[in-house]
Sequence to fold (63 residues):
Amino acid sequence: MVEVDFDLCESNGVCVGVAPDVFDLNERDELVVSDSAAELPENKDAIDEAIAGCPRAAIRWRT
Ligand code: SF4
Fold:
């Protein structure tokens, strides 16, 4: 499960560029996370990259 701290997220879309199947921005420029896509093993590497690349360190795996 992937967790985003929306108090930190500034909706800059970096994670959307890295893992577009998991992260998206809605019409109000708010970040949306697809929990079902986040569960797929093929998206794990992209999520790891998004976690590493988030300039606000707002994304983490929830264990
Ligand atoms: S990269 Fe981080 S700050 Fe940017 S939209 Fe994604 S979670 Fe938010």
Q: What stands out?
A: The longest helix spans residues 44-53. Strands lie at 2-4, 23-25, 31-33, 59-61. The chain has a mean pLDDT of 97. The longest strand covers residues 2-4.
